[in-house]
């Protein structure tokens, strides 16, 4: 499951224009133009037992998601105070929803010229 989840997240993130992956703080992290982080893949971060992504989220989204579904969404350490949201990937994952969240995170940091390029959903994995 863990390897499959990373493969899935990687496919979604790297299908977006101008993105790349490298380790940051020991975790697979996805960047726009190797500068701005939009998604981090976390596997048992400091023993928290979670398989998750941390991603940028539009203003107000973090609180709404965590309040509505605290078993799926959480406030991640270090970046949570900036509105990022944690998304658990251990069970019952809605991969289409995760892909949409990743796209939202990307749009928050990507230059306009990248955001205006349509991304084919056919290139992205589906559940």
How many domain modules?
Answer: 1
- Judging from the principal axes of the Cα atoms, what is the shape? globular
Major pleated sheet? 6 strands, antiparallel
At the fold tier of CATH, the topology name is Aspartate Aminotransferase, domain 1
Instruction: Indicate the CATH architecture.
Output: Alpha-Beta Complex
Low-confidence stretches: 123-127
Overall pLDDT, averaged? 90
Strand-residue fraction?
15-25%
Question: What's the helix count?
Answer: 4
Query: Which class of secondary structure composition applies to the elements?
Result: alpha+beta
What percent of residues adopt helix (DSSP H or I)? 25-40%
Q: How would you describe what is shown here?
A:
- With 127 residues, the chain is α+β, with helices and mostly antiparallel strands.
- The protein has one domain: Alpha-Beta Complex (Aspartate Aminotransferase, domain 1), CATH 3.90.1150.
- It has four helices and six strands.
- The protein has a six-stranded antiparallel beta sheet with strand order 1-2-3-4-6-5.
- It is globular.
